[in-house]
Amino acid sequence: xxxxxNRSPKETEVPAxxxxxxxxxxxxxxxxxxxxxxxxxxxxxxxxxxxxxxxxPLLYLASFGVALAAATVxxxxxxxxxxxxxxxxxxxxxxGGASIGQTIDEAAPLLLVAVGAIVCARAGIFNIxxxxxxxxxxxxxxxxxxxxPGPGWLILPLTxxxxxxxxxxxxxxxxxxxxxxxxDVVISTLLMVFAAMQLVSFxxxxxxxxxxxxxxxxxxxxxxxxxxxxxxxxxLGEYPDFNLGGGVLVALLVTGVIAFxxxxxxxxxxxxxxxxxxxxxxxxxxRAAALGGGALLLSGGFAGLAGGVMLTGNVYRIQAGxxxxxxxxxxxxxxxxxxxxxxxxxxxxxxxxxxAGGGFLASTGVPRYLVSVVTALLxxxxxxxxxxxxxxxxxxxxxR
Length: 400
What we know:
The protein is mainly alpha-helical. It is 70% helix and 1% strand. The protein has helices spanning 2-5, 9-19, 44-53, 56-77, 82-93, 96-122, 130-147, 152-181, 185-204, 247-264, 266-276, 278-283, 288-315, 326-336, 344-363, 368-399; strands at residues 235-236, 244-245. The longest helix has 32 residues, at 368-399. The protein is globular.
């Protein structure tokens, strides 16, 4: 047992492959008894060719074709032009520096949520409570920014740190319930979303908590005061037609660190081991409660950080509808990216373009419900090929 536990990740790959039924090196093409070549990662060209042979690009084209056809029918029946709708989506997301900047700003919190979901998925845990973790993190960040005195160089980092900590604590409740009483994580994280919404709604409707300050003759709204200037993330770029929020750098930094640790770090290897075979992981010394619970806390922390980035980057106040489906769409980003952190970057930009374009489309007079339907069809088109590939991969072992 000690000898197995002390092996390096590369030393455990071959026995694991043999245990899964792979042929020994001597039986592979190339001659019996010939030493096997060292195992290497699949080159990107070979991976691309494999994707072409599997028909995945064709599936994406067909999926988007069906989605656009359905959207055309619905838009036409509603009395609008599909060509004008597509043009408005393009203008709001990609036409000009201001639109591109808005797209990237929308992508930053999506990327943070997706990276947290990927960490959980690698550990074999499915966290679907990011919407609640995000809004609780934003609420904690708003409390720090509004009530804690101090200079901006201190308040802004504390706001983001407290938002991250609050999201992690909110995810910690399902983690404790799972490893203590075996309560299903999917159910508990989902239920915590509704609890978070009620908590935030309570806070912004009480003048002794986060409700905006009363002004003579003003009707109070269920929202907080605006954050002070010192508690806001700086904008990158001085030009009026193109600038980015500082949250983009935070999201890219987190993504890069997690991608490196998952691929090269011992933590990432143990996380994958736990997700693939919990029994074998425990036998090699992996503490499932510590590692899996930590993954869930990290996922909630990243969702809370996404809420802090939204709060300090462009929203500047907390209210009941603050999350705006960013938590759910971040999960979809992770699904489309097939749980690869670096691949989640372009996928998050695509979803950010849909959000930015959808907001511009609504401002042109197209009914909001129609904007939601068209955006949902495009999201389903992006998600369907990955979901279909995942279902096929799960069915193959059963068919054998």
